[in-house]
Design brief:
With 121 residues, the chain is an all-beta fold. Helix content is 0%, strand content 54%. It has strands at residues 2-7, 10-13, 18-26, 33-39, 46-51, 57-59, 67-72, 77-82, 91-98, 108-111, 115-120. The strands form two sheets. Strands 2, 4, 5, 6, 9, 10 and 11 form a seven-stranded mixed sheet that branches. Strands 1-3-8-7 form a four-stranded antiparallel sheet, with no helix packed on it. A hairpin with a 4-residue loop joins β7 and β8.
Length: 121
């Protein structure tokens, strides 16, 4: 079992920045890929970014260089630095651990409870 706890969400104005964190505890295999997903109200959950243990990353097209995923293995913490936030980025953000290097929710076994990001224009 892997427990994931997100933090760092909040309300910002368009153009602002936030850094999300996700602390992992329990059995965390180095083979897990760690990812960020988001779900806006009334929409399906979508992938934002994923990172492998070797540092390889995949970003969703809508990120367009604005977000950076990273991890600190010594602290068992995943991060998402979000810059140039837009109102369309408003959503609940979730971190997840999975076994496939893709941004599809069905490949992720463990999920956090989410942290809300609200961007006002």
């Amino acid at each position: 079992q892997v427990q994931l706890v997100e933090s760092g969400g909040g309300s910002v104005e368009a153009g602002g920045s936030l850094r999300l964190s996700c602390g992992a505890s329990g059995h965390r295999s180095s083979n897990y890929y760690m990812a960020w997903f988001r779900q806006a109200q009334g929409k399906e959950r979508e992938g934002v970014a994923v990172i492998g243990s070797d540092g390889d990353t995949i970003y969703a097209d809508f990120v367009q260089g604005r977000f950076t995923i990273s991890q600190d293995n010594a602290k068992n913490t995943l991060y998402l630095q979000m810059n140039s936030l837009q109102s369309e980025d408003t959503a609940m953000y979730y971190c997840a651990a999975g076994v496939v290097f893709l941004l599809r929710p069905k490949y992720y076994n463990y999920w956090g409870q989410g942290t809300q990001v609200t961007v006002s224009s």
